[in-house]
Every structure is written in structure tokens, then in C-alpha cells.
User: Which sequence fits this backbone?
């Protein structure tokens, strides 16, 4: 009951001064040693985790390389480097911007003729004669 009266009158509980930092905390002599051990344990766990993921990534890269070898694929970085080198070779002596690469088969005269010949094979005789003129 005494506590309730003091709280109501504004006296507050007896530990309020400690909560507000009124009294100095007693330092644990082993606190620094414990904190150092904790930090060391955290660092060791982090190193183990990094090692685990590095090992997993090495295994994955081995599998990727096996697939590349099997199907004759190149690494993405190598393919991009080759494409960039090819683009730079054509630009070296030029004063203008590089030309866009035209895919094979686009705009070739020979290709257009072979397509026309292919279409002509499937047309009836009278239509072939009309188109040849």
C-alpha cells in the first residue's frame, strides 16, 4: 500500500533512480573477455558459412563446365568478350559510328532468287509462265 501511495504522490518506485542512470553500473571484470570470445565465435561462424557457400559454388561451376564441354558452349563472359572484340576491330580505323550487324540471309540477292525459285516450284504451270515474263 505504501508503494501505491508513493507512486500516486510522485515519489515513484525506489529503482527509478537506477533506471535513469543515477547510479553507476558495476563492471563485470570478465565482460571484456566474454565479448571478445563472442566476437571470435561470430567470426568463426561467418568463415564457416562462407567456406560452405564457396564449396557449393565450386561444385556448381564444375557442373556448368561439364555441360559447356558436353554441348560446346562458351562462358557468357568469353562470348561477350569475343563479340566486343569483333565490333572493335571493324571500328578501329573508322571516323563514323559502327554499322549495325546484318544477320546472315537478310538482303542477300542470291537468297532472294532461291526463295523465288522455291515459290515457283509450287505454282501451277500457267502462273509460272506469267511470273517468268
Assistant:
Amino acid at each position: 500500500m505504501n508503494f501505491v501511495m508513493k507512486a500516486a504522490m510522485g515519489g515513484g518506485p525506489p529503482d527509478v533512480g537506477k533506471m535513469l542512470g543515477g547510479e553507476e553500473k558495476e563492471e563485470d571484470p570478465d565482460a571484456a573477455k566474454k565479448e571478445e570470445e563472442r566476437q571470435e565465435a561470430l567470426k568463426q561462424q561467418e568463415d564457416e558459412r562462407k567456406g560452405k557457400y564457396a564449396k557449393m559454388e565450386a561444385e556448381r561451376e564444375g557442373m556448368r563446365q561439364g555441360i559447356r564441354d558436353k554441348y560446346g558452349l562458351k562462358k557468357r563472359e568469353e562470348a561477350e568478350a569475343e563479340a566486343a572484340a569483333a565490333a572493335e576491330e571493324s571500328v578501329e580505323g573508322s571516323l563514323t559510328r559502327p554499322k549495325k550487324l546484318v544477320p546472315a540471309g537478310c538482303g542477300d540477292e542470291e537468297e532472294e532468287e532461291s526463295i523465288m525459285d522455291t515459290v515457283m516450284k509450287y505454282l501451277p504451270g500457267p502462273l509460272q509462265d506469267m511470273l517468268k515474263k
Remarks:
- The chain is about 70% helix and 0% strand.
- The radius of gyration is 40 Å.
- Helices lie at 2-9, 16-19, 31-71, 76-91, 109-122, 125-132.
- The chain has a mean pLDDT of 78.
